[in-house]
Amino acid sequence: MKRCNMIRMSMDMCVLLLFAVVSTGLVNGICPSTCLCVDDSSGSNVDCYSRYLGHIPALPNDTYHLNLLLNNITVIDIQFCKEMPQLQYIFIDFNLITDIPVNTFADCEKLYRIDLHNNKIRSIESNTFVNMTNLYYLEWPTIQMDSEEKSASAYVTFSTINMINHVFIAEIGAN
Ligand SMILES: *[C@@H]1O[C@H](CO)[C@@H](O)[C@H](O)[C@H]1NC(C)=O
Ligand SMILES: *[C@@H]1O[C@H](CO)[C@@H](O)[C@H](O)[C@H]1NC(C)=O
Ligand SMILES: *[C@@H]1O[C@H](CO)[C@@H](O)[C@H](O)[C@H]1NC(C)=O
């Protein structure tokens, strides 16, 4: 009888512990199993470099440094800073992204640096990067131009950023 109680108690402990682990994980979101996440005083530093990812995984909401460099991501289907308000750096170059939805960087006031080059971007809306008061470095995607109109819209974006934020824009080679 006593022994039974002991087993019962340790099972309860187990359930409790499991619950604690799961709920801690849920507080900030769980690190994707294919990525490496390091927590420090700024939040989560998430490294998904070259993991053959086909899409952007669910990420901890305290992510401040996000490395998705060299994957097979085709679409941006999240609003980065709505989900991760602390974001300061995004590296998403060398992927297969074709479009950047206009709200992708909404509420990204803390974002410092975006690397977007070497994707398959076709066009960018002119207000995609507005209100990013801390942006200082943007590795500009090469637009895959197939019409005059797209070329014009890329130019508008480029000059708008320059005027508003004095961003240093690096235009890096062809796709
Ligand atoms: C990633 O994309 C490249 C280029 O399209 C392709 O050759 C490769 O097979 C893909 N790898 C995976 C794991 O999806
Ligand atoms: C992350 O989500 C948790 C739970 O919803 C919330 O309490 C916390 O404030 C969020 N953190 C950030 C940085 O948004
Ligand atoms: C940019 O900021 C201004 C001033 O706060 C605001 O009125 C506008 O709606 C913002 N634009 C976007 C696209 O967030």
Automatic annotation (TrEMBL):
<dbReference type="InterPro" id="IPR000372">
    <property type="entry name" value="LRRNT"/>
</dbReference>
<feature type="domain" description="LRRNT">
    <location>
        <begin position="30"/>
        <end position="65"/>
    </location>
</feature>
<dbReference type="InterPro" id="IPR003591">
    <property type="entry name" value="Leu-rich_rpt_typical-subtyp"/>
</dbReference>
<feature type="signal peptide">
    <location>
        <begin position="1"/>
        <end position="29"/>
    </location>
</feature>
<keyword id="KW-0325">Glycoprotein</keyword>
<dbReference type="InterPro" id="IPR050333">
    <property type="entry name" value="SLRP"/>
</dbReference>
<dbReference type="InterPro" id="IPR001611">
    <property type="entry name" value="Leu-rich_rpt"/>
</dbReference>
<dbReference type="InterPro" id="IPR032675">
    <property type="entry name" value="LRR_dom_sf"/>
</dbReference>
<dbReference type="GO" id="GO:0005615">
    <property type="term" value="C:extracellular space"/>
</dbReference>
<keyword id="KW-0677">Repeat</keyword>
<dbReference type="Pfam" id="PF13855">
    <property type="entry name" value="LRR_8"/>
</dbReference>
<keyword id="KW-0433">Leucine-rich repeat</keyword>
<keyword id="KW-0732">Signal</keyword>
<protein>
    <recommendedName>
        <fullName>LRRNT domain-containing protein</fullName>
    </recommendedName>
</protein>
